[in-house]
Every structure is written in C-alpha cells, then in structure tokens.
Amino acid sequence: MTGIEQTRQRAILDPRTAAERFRLDHEPAPADLTPFVDGYWILHWGLTEPHRQQVLTHPVVHLTFTTGGQAHITGIVSDTFTREISGTGRALGLRFRPGGFRPFLTAPVSTLTDRVLDIEEIFGPAARAAADAIIAEPRVPTALHLAATLLRDFRPTPDPAIDKATKLVETINTDPAVLRVSQLAAIADMSVRQLQRLFAEYVGIGPKWVIRRASMQEAAARAAADPQDWSALAAELGYADQAHFTRDFTASIGTSPAKYASSAGRRNDS
Q: PANTHER family recorded for this chain (predicted)?
C-alpha cells in the first residue's frame, strides 16, 4: 500500500470490519484533471443486512454518484460522517484535491462545509442527465470517463493557489512535527491570518481543524491496530495531557480511545 493509499485508508473507522462489508477501489484521475482531482474511488457492496460505516473524513470535497439516482457534492464534514448502505449497490466518487474544487465555485470552498448539495446546484440543470448516465452505466471505466467529461465541460482553470493548499495539507498529513498553526504558517512563509484566509477560500476549513483531524486519524488507526500507551500517544500528537487528548478523541470518534480500541480489537481478532 502506498503512502497516499494509507492516508486515504485512515479515514475509515474500524477498517477491518469495513473491509468485510464492502470493497473500496481507487483509480487515478486523468492527467488533464489532476490540477483539480486527486482521484476516483469506487465502492461496491452486496449485503444481507444494512451496514452503518463511520468515516473520519479528509479536508476535501467529493462528487458522488450512487445507485438509486443520487448525485451529490459533499463539502468538508467537520464531524464524523456516517453512512448506511444496504442491499447491493455502487457509489462512484471523485475526490478533489484540497482546494481543487475552488474553480467550480463562485464562492469560497468554506461555503460548502458541512453541506451536501444536489449536483444541479453547482453544475446546473444539464448535469442531471449526465449524472443519470453515470449511475446507470454498469462498466466502471466508462462511468469514470463520463464523470471526467462532466468536469471537462465546465472548463475549470488551473490555479497555483490550489497547489499551495494541497502541499500544506500534505505537509500536515506527512510531517508529525507539524502540530501548531504557527508552525505551518512558518513553513508556508505566510502570516497566520494569511494562512487562515487561504484555507477558508480553497480548502474549506481552518488549518487548526486540519491538524487536529490528522491527529485523530492517526490516533484511530493506531488504536485499531495495536494496544497503545495513551499518555505517550497524546504527547506524541502534541497534547499537554492525556485528558485533553481523550476529550478530543471522544468528540471526533464518538467514543473514548480505550473503548474504540477494545471494540475494533475484538472485531479484528474474531
């Protein structure tokens, strides 16, 4: 598994149980769309009973086409995202780069945060027919091609600020030493206020949230994999004490670190 795939996988809570319920594949974006799109994801499921999946989402926008006719743009989800799937189906998603959805909007990406919009609200009424064709297409490569065509028809313009936003989010996700907004601002050679404006305009949420979300994804991944010394992990993630770490983890995941680790561990050992 590549570093990028590992970063993506950290968003899925209780990942081994999830792998028993559905298959998640990834495909690269076409070269001409890489200034905007990080890649495609394709979810397949066939279930005898409903499954509710929690996701600790990344700071990116998704365009999703789902069995049953749903075509949505989902902004950054600041809380834990929970989705229920049942029966047999497929969801095909375009995962935009941090900041990569800005050319498709007439407003900052922060206007999408914690919102789910029908595709017509951003791409116009004609997008509904394109979405229906993508959902109905049984061949994944063809469906992906149709989705790419939908974006190309919008004629987005590359923006160097997208590259800057993406690089800064990648820095947060890959450099465990970056624990403070002031550190990130120094790396970006920007003031804290300039950094906050960049994130609001392009990423859709503040850098402090992105840093905390990366820490919680790392903590959840560690907890699901192996027993942890919570005090040591809290210190490693930049917390002054274990109590503060536990409060943040519980608020983000919905349960305490110990309970999450116990639940995931029992499932993983079964």
A: HTH-TYPE TRANSCRIPTIONAL ACTIVATOR RHAS-RELATED
Average pLDDT over residues 235-250: 92
Q: Smallest Cα–Cα separation from 256: which of 243, 241, 266, 267?
A: 243
Instruction: Identify the structural domains of the chain with CATH numbers, from first to last.
Output: 3-154 (no CATH), 160-269 (1.10.10.60)
Give the chain's mean pLDDT. 91
Q: What percent of the chain has pLDDT over 90?
A: 77
| pLDDT tens-place string over residues 118-173 | 999 999 999 999 999 999 999 999 999 999 999 999 999 999 999 999 999 999 99
- Secondary structure of the chain in the HEC alphabet? CCHHHHHHHCCECCHHHHHHHEEEEEEECCHHHCCCEEEEEEEEEECCCCEEEEECCCCCCEEEEECCCEEEEECCCCCCEEEEECCEEEEEEEEECCCCCHHHCCCCHHHHCCCEEECHHHHCCCHHHHHHHHHHCCCHHHHHHHHHHHHHHHCCCCCHHHHHHHHHHHHHHHCCCCCCHHHHHHHHCCCHHHHHHHHHHHHCCCHHHHHHHHHHHHHHHHHHHCCCCHHHHHHHCCCCCHHHHHHHHHHHHCCCHHHHHHHHHHHHHC
